[in-house]
Amino acid sequence: MLCLLLRHLERKGYKFFRKILCIRWVLVLSQRKNIIMKTFQTLLTEISEGILTITINREEKLNALNAQLIVELGEAIDELYNNDEVKACIITGKGPKAFAAGADIAEFKGMSKEQGIFLAKRGHAVFNKIELSPKPVIAAVNGFALGGGCELAMACHIRIASENAKFGQPEVNLGIIPGYGGTQRLVQLIGKGKAFELLMTGDTIDAVCAERLGLVNDVVQTVELLEVCRALLHKINGKAPIAISKVIECVHAHFKDGIDGFDTEIEEFSNCVSTEDFTEGTNAFLEKRKASFKGK
Q1: Is the pLDDT at 104 greater than 50, yes or no?
Q2: Which residue, 198, 228, 223, 192, is CA-closest to 210?
Q3: Does residue 117 carry a pLDDT above 90?
Q4: pLDDT digit string (tens) for 40-60?
Q5: Catalytic residue among 79, 85, 151, 249
Q6: Which of 162, 219, 233, 252 could bridge to 207 as Cys pair (CB 3.0-4.6 Å)?
Q7: 137: Cβ–Cβ under 8 A, 6 or more apart, which residues?
Q8: Structural domain boundaries of the chain?
Q9: Of 6-15, 64-73, 111-120, 202-211, which range is least confident?
């Protein structure tokens, strides 16, 4: 039917309207397939079943984080915040070798202090946006996660690693320190003493050690990595969206200076009580049925 209409418009000379109709039809199809229309040079992005998957696409550079990638990553994460169809996010790397093997060191040569401040602030802004997302973000660590790559993984709420994953903050080997939050998040995740050791030696640890230290939540076979991450997010997405966002907010409150996390919990608990999801959840429990949450 659409093809017949397009040919009719072209025969009548209505090429402009034909073009408009084509554009609108493409948009409709893209919405049905849940594909992000925006394209990036350093990332691959798609939405499927409510999950935004962001794949770092610099395989030839072991997915090193250059300046352009950091900017584009921030733009891709905006989709998580602004698209109501997106319920959660996975960040991973292209290829079998690396999640993100650090920053692109070539960009560091000749850098001034002012440029260093700008670089670090920009990285902090993007990684903070990931960490503070009200929707869950999982790092599917499929290989090397070193330097900025380790910092990116730590900014995510949950880390699932493949068997070949490697973690480390080797910046001291270059005469610098982590600049995207690594000195802070590593301490939060594995404790002060072990963080000191890894940060000062620059040592790399494997996935099993990372799991033992609490740096990653789970280690799975490489071929199962994305499937496991999606299954976990589907499970989380079946819960009340507002409650999930409040869990994230309350956990972050524990690490904020001047904020009493217990007070935050009391406040957000009471906010949840006033939601439609709370009514639905309690009714479903009492009626012995599966809850259908609307995020309201």
Answers
A1: yes
A2: 198
A3: yes
A4: 999 999 999 999 999 999 999
A5: 151
A6: 219
A7: 80, 88, 89, 90, 91, 130, 155, 156, 157, 158
A8: 36-237, 241-286
A9: 6-15
Torsion sign over Cα 79, 251, 186, 190: negative
Domain 36-237 indexed as CATH 3.90.226.10: yes
d(CA 119, CA 36): 28
Confidence of residue 13 (pLDDT cuts 50, 70, 90): low
Q: Residue 224 catalytic?
A: no
Is 171 labeled as catalytic in the residue annotation? yes
One DSSP character per residue, 186-214 reads: HHHHH-HHHHHHHHHH--EEEHHHHHHHT
Q: If you search the block for the tokens 């962001």, which residue do you land on?
A: 54
Query: Catalytic: which of 85, 114, 171, 265?
Result: 171
pTM score, whole prediction: 0.85
